[in-house]
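wait is this the right file?? whatever heres the structure
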């Protein structure tokens, strides 16, 4: 099998961090989004909504959506467990993953896409005011998470989870464009430092 998407960028990196945590070596095929390599007939056949990453199986079947791909791989390789060991843990980690992806990650992404000159190739009709509103929403959410992190190491508890992967890679990925954790969020800053030190995050960083 192989994965379409650039290993150090965006959602493909989320999958790459998961694979590092699991010790699963699956090759990535870089896709240059700014050049529109994901908007070709061949790519539409793999994922009609033209998003990376895509997992392509040896028989040609394809899966998209980062967490769904991870779920598939987790079924094939349950050890070491990363997405929960029992029904409650699985649902709890899913809950956190969805909360982060829909609540915070989407707002940070929309800020980036609506305001950054680097995102213009993907978002030619940017609406900066909408982006700034999303930034404020993201900051509100981050302040709530900062409170949660007062008494635990990671978002869903004491174990690094997919929710941490999603938020940590998003914050690292948009820092250069100017997105910063609010100054009053010390717990969150320390959490990001903890995540950033993990070998899986280091190995998938663009500068690695
Ligand atoms: N919900 C999707 C999001 C995937 C996604 O947004 N991928 C971005 C790169 S990080 C993409 O392919 N963007 C291309 C575009 O917007 O045209 C997932 O979890 O895989």
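ok assuming it is, sequence goes like this
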């Amino acid at each position: 099998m192989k994965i379409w998407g650039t290993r150090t960028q965006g959602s493909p990196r989320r999958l790459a961090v998961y694979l590092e945590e699991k010790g699963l070596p699956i090759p990535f095929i870089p896709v240059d989004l700014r050049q529109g390599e994901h908007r070709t007939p061949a790519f539409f056949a793999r994922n009609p909504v033209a998003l990376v990453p895509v997992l392509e199986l040896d028989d040609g079947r394809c899966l998209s959506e980062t967490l769904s791909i991870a779920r598939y791989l987790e079924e094939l390789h349950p050890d070491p467990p990363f997405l929960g060991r029992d029904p409650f843990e699985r649902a709890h980690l899913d809950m956190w993953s969805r909360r982060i992806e829909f609540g915070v990650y989407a707002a940070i992404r929309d800020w980036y896409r609506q305001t950054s000159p680097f995102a213009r190739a993907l978002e030619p009709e940017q609406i900066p005011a909408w982006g700034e509103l999303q930034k404020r929403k993201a900051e509100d959410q981050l302040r709530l998470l900062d409170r949660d992190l007062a008494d635990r190491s990671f978002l869903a508890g004491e174990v690094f989870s997919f929710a941490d992967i999603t938020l940590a890679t998003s914050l690292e990925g948009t820092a250069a464009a100017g997105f910063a954790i609010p100054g009053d969020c010390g717990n969150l800053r320390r959490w990001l430092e903890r995540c950033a030190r993990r070998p899986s995050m280091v190995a998938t960083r663009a500068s690695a």
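Residues 2-76 form a domain with the Glutaredoxin fold (CATH 3.40.30.10). so i think its the right one actually
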